[in-house]
Write a structure and sequence with these properties.
Number of helices: 26
Helix content: 25-40%
Shape: elongated
Structural class: alpha/beta
Strand content: 5-15%
Strand order of the largest sheet: 7-6-5-8-9-10-11
Distance between the termini: 100 Å
Amino acid sequence: MTETHGEYTALLLDEGHSGDAAVLDRLRRDPAVVFVDRLDQQIESLRSLVPTPGPGALDEAPVWAYYSWRRTVVRLLGPASFRLLRLDRNRNKITAQEQERLRNVTVGIVGLSVGHAVALALTLEGACGGLRLADFDTLELSNLNRVPGTVLDLGVNKAVVAARRIAEIDPYVTVTLWEDGLDVESVAEFLDGTDVVIDECDSLDVKVSLRREAKRRGLPVLMATSDRGLLDVERFDLEPDRPVFHGVIGDVDVESLTGLGSRDKIPLVLRILDAGELSATMAASLVEVDETISTWPQLGGEVLLGGAQVAAAVRRIGLGQPLAPGRCRMDLDQHLDALTDPPRPHDLPEEPADRAVPAPVSHDAVDAVVHAAARAPSGGNVQPWTIAADDAGLTISVAPEHTTAMDVGYRGSCVAVGAALHNARIAASAAGLLGAVTVHDGDEGLPVATMTFGSGNARELTDRYEHMLDRTTNRRPGVPRPLDDTQAGLLAEAASREGARLCLVTDRDDIATIGAILAESDRIRFLTPTLHREMIGELRWPPLDSVETGIDVRALELDSAELSTLALLRRPDVMERLGELDAGRALGKSTADRVASSSAVAVVAIPGSTPRDYVRGGEATESVWIHAQALGLAVQPISPVFLYGVESAELEQLSPRYAAPLERLREELFDVVGAKAGEALAMVLRLSHAPGPSVRSERLADRLRRRIS
């Protein structure tokens, strides 16, 4: 083991320490020594991190690092702040907690050709806190095809070259060298204090001895072989009885392996590497060893790939993640031979925002009423109803087969039925068919709305007919111009006429609070597997998908960057990873931004939580929506996860992990909108001043039944 650390580690000096200050003073007087001080830039970068580091990092004393082989002194952040800043870009492929755990891992690397690439990858990623490096050889010019050194390192011990590289990246990594390399006798000493062993040496006797000692100690051994991306993993920590080299070489005599030349090693190497799996170029090269080439070839790119493979395996071991023993090949040529075109982005057809509202399917008055009812909004545009009509009247009932997890107790479906009933009343009034309306319990206690056709009309309904047909969801960001008292009064009256109460929030701070609540609800929806699956299942990508149900992605009003990000948000594995980290604060950012651009948030409150109350809430929601749009406002419904979860047990069923946060969010929303005891919330509407929407949602015809009497 080498003790001359100054040849390959930085001397760390604290200017506040008298002894260190004297050394720095002496170095400053030496004209051959260069001082580099870019501490201000490091501190500025440290302060810009998200989240902002605490006082412990910001107030940590800096150090001077003296690199004797470069005759250079560099001013650096202290160890904690240095590590925080240097490894910040690892997050969250490696979390801060995982990074701290890896800091306690010590890795021993034997052989510093491929091993240099391994040490480099481990250092870059902060995948260990200590390294033990062993190699007796010095760097030669022929090594520079694969060893990431320079011509300035020629003649320097390979372990020293690697250690210097590490120190210049991170002077706080603990590095210990065995510049005489390892032999059978020194293997045990090398493994003292080592957690993971990396074998990249050429000596077969050392390879076998290393594994036997690692097996005795219960240490994992990794080896990357620079041909077709071969990675060997021997988990002696998990399988203490596992034979070395997976048993492919049998029980060999170590002494017989000492001092073998390149050609003499080939038979055993072929057994280790599996001759049948070698690349053709490697197999042909082995035939030429000592004839036209001096030893077996290695390419720099394949060596660097090996470094990346081993670093990934060390991370898994260090973090206790699954890593089975065995071997695998990551053959770059094989993958390059299998290149295919990537899936192309969905080509969304353009559609003018101001296109005319389609007329009813026919001029028949009853058909006009049926299709007006079908134009009602529903969560995710699932249209959870069955609408049937004949010349005598019309019924609208809940279709339970079209429910979703967020439609707790079919309450959202009841709201949709109420909205459809309100549309039917408007159309019937405009056609002179308005008659008695009742809501009664049907099968399974679900409400059924019935309207008997008569000869009546009501001016306040008839006047809303064109506005009802024009009603649509508008998710565009808006301009937060305030509503005047007249507008607010008309919207409140629109809700009260249908037996509900409108909670209209116009205070900017309260709107921001609502935005934060709804954003956190969206985050939970993304991170809850069932809710995420259903949410993504609502999206429709024309022209590939029919848009008669679900949400046309064009209606989301996303810019190109947001639309690209949506491809990531659709992936369950990405959401699972964010959930493990309890992260994903950005998942609700779009909602928070849109709410912040609103002129007001309108919440429809109903006097109870029976199915009929929610039907009443649907009628009031549609009434408010139609009036708001008639006043020139853009309207977007936002359904927080907890909207229809009235009981704590229902929230537990919705999202077991986030039930408590959902209950807290529900309480916060009730408080900020001023909901009263005993009330329930039927809908949350975002009101804004914005341009027209890109597209309108379509409807299915097969849930409408016209009976001829």
